[in-house]
Amino acid sequence: MSTQPMDSGMETAEFAVGAEALTALDDGKPPATAGTRKWLRFRFLIRFQSLLGLVLVLFGGIIFSPRRNGEILFLSADNLANIVRSVSETGIIAVGMTFVIIAGGIDLSVGAVLGLSGVLVARLMIDWNYGTALAIIIVLIAGLLFGVLQGLVSNYMRIQAFIVTLAGLQLARGLARFISGDKFINISFGSGPKQAPSSFSVLGDRFGGVLPVSALVFLGVGIIGSVVLNTTRFGRHVFAVGGNERAARLSGINVRYVKIVTFAICGIAAALSGILDAGQLAFANPDSGTGYELTAIAAVVIGGTSLFGGEGTVVGTLAGALLLGSLNNILQLNNINSNLQLIVTATIIVLAAALQHLASRRRGT
Amino acid sequence: MRSALKESRTNMTRHPAPRPLALVTVGLLILGCAACTSASGETVGSADHPGALAKNCGTGKKFKIGFAQANNAEPYRQHVNSELKQLAKGYPDFDITIADGRGDSNKQISDVENFQTQQVDLLMISPFEAQPLTPTVSQLYAKGTPVIELDRQTTGDKYTAFVGGDNQAIGKAAGTYTAQKVLPNGGEVAILEGLTSTTPAVQRTKGFTEGVAANPKIKVVAVQPADWLPDKAQTVFDAMLRANPGIKAVYANNDLMANGAYLALKGQNKVGDVAIIGTDGLPDEAGGDRAVIDGRMTATFVYPTGAKEALDLAKSILVDCAKSVERNTVVDTTLITKDNAQAAIDKARN
To answer: Cβ-count burial of A91 within 10 angstroms (0-12 exposed, 13-18 middle, 19+ buried)?
Structure first.
C-alpha cells in the first residue's frame, strides 16, 4: 500500500507504468481529486469500448451505405438480419470463450468442436434415426463432456489450457473426420430413411421471413451468458479465479471446479454452433469451423475482455462480434477489397487491446 | 491439395464434374467459340424460373454484376478472377465485383446476401460447397435475379445457366494427343493420378485411357495415384521408371505431378527420353505454361475458366434481352505446346 499523499499519488499514476501505477492507485481509499474523476469517466468509456466502437461502425455504415432510390441499403431489415446471422456461429462461441478467458484460460478447440458437432448431429438423425430434440441434446452433452475433459486434463495434469485445447482441436477434428467417414453429409429433410426430421430445418428458417433463427439463438445465448456472468455466484467466482487465482483459492472458492465449468460452457457453445451450422446449411462438413476459434477470440478481445483474465463482459463480446460483422458488411457493400477487411480487422483488434491495457493500468489491476 | 480434397467431397454430393485442383486458361486458342463449346440445347424461362432472364435489360444501361468466388487462395480461382476482370474491359456496360468466399460456405452465403442487398443485376457464382449455397442462391433467383454458375453447380435447377469444363473430355484429348502425336508408333505409357477419391482424378484418368486406346500399339503399363502432389509424384514415378524402363510417355492428372515426374527423370538422367503430358495449363510463373516453355513438360491441357462464355451469356441476358439462353455450356480444353505457351502467358498478362 502506498504511503504517499493522495494527490501526488495520482500524479504519478497518470504517467507511471506497471508496478508503480499499481502501488500508487491501489490504496483502497475512495478517489477524490478532479484528476481521478476525469479518469473515472475515461474508464467508463473504455469499459464499453466495443459498444462505442459498434455505434461508430453503425454510423459509418449509414453514412457510407450504398443507396437505391433514397433507401439506405445498410439499414434495410434484411441486411441487418444478415449481419446478425453472419456472426451468429462465431458469436455464440465467443460468448462461451468469454467465460474461459475471464477465468484466465483459452480454448482453441472450439472451431473443431463445431465441425464435430455438425457431423455428429447429422449422423444421429440420418443414420441412427434419432429425433431432432434428442439428437440436439446428445450433441450438446457431447460438447459439454468435451469441455469437461479438457478442463480436467488442464487442471489435474497441470498443462496450460493453450496446449490442452490445441490437442483438443486435433482430437475433435480427427473424431469429426472419423465419424463422417471423411465425407460431406448432405442433410435432406423428411420422414423417410436416411432423412433428418423436418423440424431440424427450422434452424435455417427466418421468423416472419426476416429474422433468421440462428440470429435469435445467438442473441438468446448472449442474454443468458450475460445474466449468468453478472448475477450468479458462479459468475463472481469466474472473475475471482481469473483475477487472482491464489486469492480465490484462499477465500474458499473451488478454483478447479470453476475453471472446468468454464470449459464445459465453452464446449456447449461450440456444440450449439455446430448444430446451427448443420441446420442452416443442411449440410455437415468435418472441416467446418476451421479458424472460427480465432474469430471468436477476436470478438472477445474487441469486447474488452482481458486475455490475462479477471475482467470482461458478455455484452462487450456481443458488441465485438456484431462490430466485426457490421464492418465486413459495410466494406463488402462498398465493394472494398476483401483483403482490406482483414487488415481493418487487425487494426481494430490491436486498438481494442491497447485501450483495454490502458484501462487496466489506470485501474491498477 | 486441400482444394483437391474439398473438390472431391463436393463432387460426392450430387454434382457432376466440377473442376479439380489447380488449373488453367481458357482464352487461348479460342478458335471461335462455335467450335469449342458444346451445348445441350436445353433452355429455361417459365414461372418456375423467375430469375431465368432479366426483367430489366437493354442497351445503354449500366449493370452491376456480382461474382461470388469460392476461394481466392487457390491459384486456379485467382486465374479465373484475373481473366474475368481482364475480359470485362470489353464489356463497358458491366460493373463487376468479386467477393472472396475464403473457402467457407458461411462467408460465401454472406457474400451472396450482400450482393442481394446491393441489388445486383446478375449473380455469377462458383459455389464452394454445393448444398449449403443452394438455398441462398435459389432465393436470389426466385426474386428475379439471373444466376450464372461457373465451374461448380448448386443442387437443383434454380439457376439460369452453367458454364464449366469437362474433365473426362480433357483426359480424352490428352489421350488422343498421346496416341496420335507423341507416340504414333506406340510404346509404354504411365499415368500419375490425382487423389483417387476425387472425381476430377477419376474422370481424367478414364478419359485418357479411352483416348490412348485409339492406338493399339500403346500399352499403359503403370497407373498409380500421387494425390495431386509433386513430391509424391517424384517418388512414385521414380519407382515406375525403374520397374518399367521402357516407358516412353507419362500422363499426369495435374501439372504439379507432371513436374514431379520431370524431377524423377532428371534424377535418373533421362530427361528427354520420356514425354510428359500434364493438365491445368495455368499461365502464371509457377504454372504449366512456363514448364512447357522451359522443356520440363512436353504439353499440357488447359482446364478452362469459362470467363468469356459467362460474360457472353451475361451480355445476352442483360444487354440483348435474350428470350432464352443455353442452360449448360461445356468449355473445351486447349492444347498447350511450345508453339503457343508463350502466347498463352502473354495473353493472361494483358
So the answer is: buried
B338 within a domain of the structure (yes/no): no
The string of pLDDT tens digits covering residues A244-290 is: 999 999 999 999 999 999 999 999 999 999 999 999 888 898 889 99
Q: Which residue of B has its CA nearest to A280?
A: B132
Q: Inspect the interface and report whether the beta carbons of A183 and B9 lie closer than 8 Å.
A: yes
Q: Supply the range of the domain harboring residue B141.
A: 12-162+306-332
HSE value, Cβ hemisphere, 13 Å, CA-based, for B274? 32
Residue B303's pLDDT is 93
Number of domains, chain B = 2
Interface test with A, best of B119, B131, B227 (most A CBs within 10 A): B131
- For A346, residues 6+ apart whose C-beta sits below 8 A from its C-beta are none
The DSSP symbol for A30 reads: P
Partner residue opposite A281 with nearest CB, options B14, B116, B132: B132
Tell me which residue of B75, B1, B56 sits closest to B303, measured CA to CA: B75
The verdict on a CB contact (< 8 Å) between A283 and B132 is yes
ipTM score of the complex? 0.71
Q: Which residues of B touch A329 (CB under 8 A)?
A: 110, 114
How would residue A50 be classed by pLDDT, with cut points 50, 70 and 90? confident
CATH of the domain at B29: 3.40.50.2300
Indicate if B191 and B326 belong to the same structural domain: no
Give the pairing of strands B63-69 and B94-100. parallel
Tell me the domains of chain A and their CATH numbers: 49-355 (1.10.3470)
Q: Cβ contact (<8 Å) for B113 and A282?
A: no
> Per the domain annotation, does B1 fall within a domain?
no
pLDDT tens-digit series, residues B250-308: 999 999 899 999 999 998 999 999 999 999 999 988 889 999 999 999 999 999 999 99
Q: What is the pLDDT of residue A144?
A: 98
pLDDT digits (tens, 9 = 90+) for A67-88: 878 888 899 888 999 899 999 9
Structure pTM?
A: 0.75
- Whether residue B171 is found in the same domain as residue B138: no
Q: Looking at the structure, tell me whether residues B18 and B155 fall in a common domain.
A: yes
Q: Are both B323 and B283 inside the same structural domain?
A: no
Q: Answer whether residue B346 is part of any domain.
A: no
Residue B120 falls inside a structural domain: yes
Are residues B228 and B260 both part of a single domain? yes
Could you tell me the CA-to-CA distances from A132 to A15, A141, A191, A203, B286 in Å, in that order? 59, 14, 12, 11, 49
The alpha carbon of residue A37 is apart from the nearest alpha carbon of chain B, in Å, by 44
